[in-house]
Specification:
There is one protein chain. With about 290 residues, this protein is an alpha+beta fold. It has five helices and 18 strands. It folds into two domains: about 130 residues, no CATH class; about 150 residues, Phosphoenolpyruvate Carboxykinase, domain 3 (Alpha-Beta Complex), CATH 3.90.228. About 20% of the residues lie in helices and about 35% in strands. A nine-stranded mixed β-sheet has the order 3-1-2-4-9-8-7-6-5, with helices on one face. Strands 10, 11, 12, 13, 14, 15, 16, 17 and 18 form a nine-stranded mixed β-sheet that branches. Strand 5 and strand 6 form a beta hairpin. Helix 2 packs across helix 5 and helix 3 packs across helix 4.
Length: about 290
């Protein structure tokens, strides 16, 4: 099966390769029919790993528990590549990518029934790994579109990103949501473009479209509404925490991310919004970004 995500081609092969049928309905708008001779950006082989011991960990980059201890994840190096493992109860899932290759081998298809949550997250990690040197990043944010331009609202979980984009939709005529969790930014010909993606958190907003980025805006809660543009170094500091967290612990991946973030801020303003969860905050950020 082929999927076009941020104008990159993801191809899946093997058991459970129809990931929509496996329960990942967010991928449906991204299904495409292509010539089998077309070179995919990432080829995911769903059941090409039969012996996980063939990829022993040489360095753990980042380990973590999933929300509500659903599973345990580990992003690591093996000799000659990257590996990402997920363990849930008595099941263990592994995805590996050799350095310089666009092929991801996995055992995601080894079980009779797929685990949609872990398949979704495993693809997100490995797709991000392959996108990094291509000047593309999955940014943790909520994206609002107005006048065919996108504004990315950044912030820690619980800051109010989704609330703020909802306030735009309720109070700014023509504003609409593009993605509510993990849109993809690409820098093309020196300009930042934001794409909808199959990863949109708890909000079912799976839109296979893209728009130029008008601005990025980091939110923080406050007892007042105030917005100001950030200088270059502060702009980098505002964006980096919203990039894939595991990549921050690997020098090669962090360099790729920093190059892309530098390209983004060279052509795109970054703001900090200190705000209340009210209509006035949406009106202030809209007027600052679009009317000045």
């Amino acid at each position: 099966m082929d999927y076009s995500i941020a104008d990159f081609l993801l191809r899946t092969e093997g058991p459970h390769s129809d990931i929509v049928a496996c329960g990942l309905r967010g991928f449906k708008p991204f299904e495409v029919e292509t010539d089998l001779d077309a070179e995919p950006t990432m080829l995911l082989r769903m059941n090409s790993i039969t012996d996980a011991t063939a990829y022993p960990t040489t360095k753990v980059i980042h380990s973590f528990d999933f929300e509500q201890n659903y599973a345990y994840g580990e992003f690591a190096r093996y000799d000659g590549g990257y590996r990402f493992s997920m363990t849930r109860e008595d099941k263990s899932f592994l995805l590996v990518k050799k350095d310089g290759s666009n092929v991801v081998d996995s055992n995601l298809g080894q079980y009779e029934e797929a685990d949609p949550s872990l398949v979704r997250f495993g693809i997100w990690v490995m797709f991000g790994l392959i996108m990094a040197p291509l000047r593309a990043i999955a940014i943790h944010s909520s994206v609002i579109v107005k006048d065919d331009c996108g504004v990315l609202c950044l912030g820690e979980s619980g800051t109010g990103k989704s609330t703020h984009t909802r306030l735009w939709r309720e109070n700014i005529d023509g504003a609409r949501l593009l993605n509510d969790d993990s849109p993809i930014i690409r820098v093309i010909d020196g300009k930042a473009i934001v794409y909808g993606s199959p990863w949109s958190g708890k909000t079912h907003c799976y839109v296979n479209k893209c728009v130029p980025v008008r601005a990025l805006m980091r939110l923080s809660q406050a007892p007042y509404n105030k917005i100001y543009r950030l200088p270059a170094l502060a702009s980098i500091g505002a964006i980096l925490p919203s990039c894939p967290p595991a990549f921050a612990y690997d020098a090669t991946l962090q360099d790729e991310i920093c190059h892309t973030v530098s390209d983004i801020i060279s052509s795109t303003p970054v703001y900090h919004l200190e705000c209340l969860p009210d209509a006035a905050a949406a009106q202030l950020s809209y007027s600052t970004i679009f009317e000045r």
